[in-house]
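=== RUN LOG ===
request id: a7f3
mode: sequence -> structure
chains: 1
length: 312
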Amino acid sequence: MKNNNHTIDILCVGEVLIDFIGHQNNVLINHTRDYHRYLGGSPANVAMNCKRLGLKPVMVASVGNDGFGEYIYNRVDKIGIEPKNIKKLEKYSTSVIFVSKSNGTPDFIPYRNADFQITEDQITLEMLSQSKIFHTTCFALSKKPAQTTILNKAIEASKLGCKLSIDINYAKELWDCKEEAITIIKKYCALNPLIKISEDDMLRLFEEKLPHQEIFDFFHSIGVDTVCLTLGSKGVKLSQKNKPIIQLPAVKIENVMDTTGAGDAFWSGFLFAYIKEKNINDCLQIALKLAALKLQNVGRLPDNINILSKLL
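=== RESULT ===
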């Protein structure tokens, strides 16, 4: 990963939005009475987590020119990420998601408008040539023009030697049909990204509980060398093509406060360690520690903690 021309550690492209997370724990949205506002969106979470870890991220996204968009700008700017690459749109409102507070996979309802209005002019050749990792999500790929933009720019990035990454956070509510989702996932995976998936993601995508090896084989067969499968409280499995599977337990914590964003925290830790050229076991260990820290905080990782010193 060492290259003096790489002034951007990670280029995060995709959804930034408002999460309204319920106050009542372990109930579905139909039983949630009230909510608290947080900045959300998986690529945004990864960008902010990486900034807290001392990396140099860039966030490319779109929001409405409204109160929620202003809130996002201010939050991103406050943490030290330049908001200039987050486009403000007059004709679209900032996307919002209502999320239940849960110890497991949360229930959610999306109200999408601005988040997928990402256009190719937002990502320059210079940005791609300076980036070590190009990261996105299945969520971001679910609608055009963001879908077209991300696929085209991922191809450019790969040709420039930038390593790709994706969180395959598939949810049927975000796509017109599952067949389209699988087609788009295959196109991105043909570029050999680092991929993060969860058991819940795979159950939604394949609509049946498949053996882990069968999941790994599917992604290896479409061009992916490294597949990271998160297992919630059971930890993680990682499969590298033609290598033994690595399995590690989750970090034990006493009190789970909020699971929303735990996967983003995990992947932030993994990518952080990958950029720092740690071995694959260290990447997983750091990822698990960061996920455990997130589980003990509602909404996001804390700003006022020296995470880096606690992980290394």
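=== NOTES ===
The longest strand covers residues 17-25.
Residues 45 and 71 are 15 Å apart (CA to CA).
=== END ===
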